[in-house]
Amino acid sequence: MGLIVAQQGIKGSYHDIVRQDMFPDSTMMGLDSFHEVVLAVEDRSADIGIMAVENSIHADTPAALELRTNFERLEIFGETVLDITHRLIGAADGDIDEIRSHQVAISQCRKRARELYPGVRLVESVDTAVAVEEVARLALQGVTNVAAIGSRLAGQLHPHLAEIQTDMNDYDNNQTRFLIFKREDNDIVDLDPDKADKTTVRLVVPDRKDGLLDAMKILSYYDVNYTSLIANGFRYDSRDGEIVIPAEFTHAWHDDRLVQAVAEIKSKLGGKVDNLGSYPTGKVLKV
C-alpha cells in the first residue's frame, strides 16, 4: 500500500495540487480542518500531512501556529510554494449573482468579484474544491447563477463547467507556502540531511524582562538568519513561566552558527530551541 497523505480539502483543492506533485502515487485523506490533519498524522491514520502555513497576502495561518507550537511528535521535512491564480468556475451561460469559496480565497478576490459582478453574494465554503463541487451539482440541476472561486484543476474535474474568469486575484504575487510533515518516529520517507538549508523551531524562553530580546541578540551574534519569528503567535505557558515562539532559520539544524546559538540560549538564558524539522527550500509551482 502506498503513502496515505492527509490534507485539508478534497480533490482539486490547492492542498491536493501539492500532494499530487510531491507524492503522485499516494492515497489522499481529505479532511475538513487543519487540526484533523495533524491528528491523523499523530495517530498514524496517515503517513504524511500537508498544511498551508503562510500566504504572501495574509501572512501566517492559525493552523501554522498550532502545528509549530502545540504538537510534540511531528517532524517537518519539506515545503512547497504555490503561486496561485484563482479562477472563477461555473456554468458557461450563467448570470452570476452568487460566488462560493473558502474564506481565504474570498478575501483574496473580493474586490475583483464585486467589480465584475456588482451586488454579488459572497458565500463561504469549507474548501475551494468543495465550492466548485457544489456549483457542479447545482449546474446539473439547472441552477446556473452560482459560481465558485478555485483552482484550474478543480474546474477540470467537472467537464460540464467552464472557466468563466481566468484571474480573480485582487493582488499580484499571491503565493501560499505549504509544509510537509510526518511523525518523527516514522521512517517511511528517506531524508537526506545534507540537502537541508532551512529549519523550523520552537523557541522557548523564560518569561522575564528582555528574555526574548536576549535570545534574538544571541542569534544575531552568531549570524543566524531567520525568515520568520512569529511574535504575534506566541503561546504563554503560565505553569512553566515560558514564552513559546515559532521561528524559521535559513540554516540546516547542524549548521555551526545555529548549533552555537542554540547552546548559548540554553546555557545563558535557561531557554531551549526544539527542532521541528530541517529540510530543503521548496520549489515554486505556478497554478
Question: SSE layout and pairings?
Answer:
Layout: E1 4-8, H1 14-22, E2 27-31, H2 34-42, E3 48-55, E4 59-60, H3 62-69, E5 74-83, E6 87-90, E7 98-102, H4 103-116, E8 121-125, H5 128-140, E9 146-150, H6 152-156, E10 162-165, E11 175-183, E12 198-206, H7 211-221, E13 226-229, E14 235-237, E15 242-249, H8 256-269, E16 272-279, E17 284-286
Parallel strand pairs: 1-2, 1-3, 5-17, 7-8, 7-9
Antiparallel strand pairs: 3-4, 3-11, 5-11, 6-9, 6-10, 12-15, 12-16, 13-15, 14-15
Helix pairs in contact: 7-8
What is the N-to-C succession of helices and strands?
A: EHEHEEHEEEHEHEHEEEHEEEHEE
User: Structural class of the secondary structure composition?
Assistant: alpha/beta
How far apart lie the N and C ends?
29 Å
Number of helices: 8
- The radius of gyration computed from the alpha-carbon positions, rounded to a whole number of angstroms, is 21 Å
Seen as an oligomer or otherwise, the chain set is single chain
Q: What is the strand content?
A: 25-35%
Low-confidence segments, given as residue ranges, are none
Report helical residue fraction.
25-40%
Q: If you had to describe this structure to a student in words, what would you say it looks like?
A:
The structure is a single chain. The protein has eight helices and 17 strands. The protein is α/β, with parallel strands linked by helices. It folds into three domains: 94 residues, D-Maltodextrin-Binding Protein, domain 2 (3-Layer(aba) Sandwich), CATH 3.40.190; 79 residues, 3-Layer(aba) Sandwich (D-Maltodextrin-Binding Protein, domain 2); 83 residues, ACT domain (Alpha-Beta Plaits). The strands form three sheets. Strands 1, 2, 3, 4, 5, 11 and 17 form a seven-stranded mixed sheet that branches. The chain has a five-stranded mixed sheet with strand order 8-7-9-6-10, sandwiched between helices. Strands 12, 13, 14, 15 and 16 form a five-stranded antiparallel sheet that branches. It starts with a strand and ends with a strand.
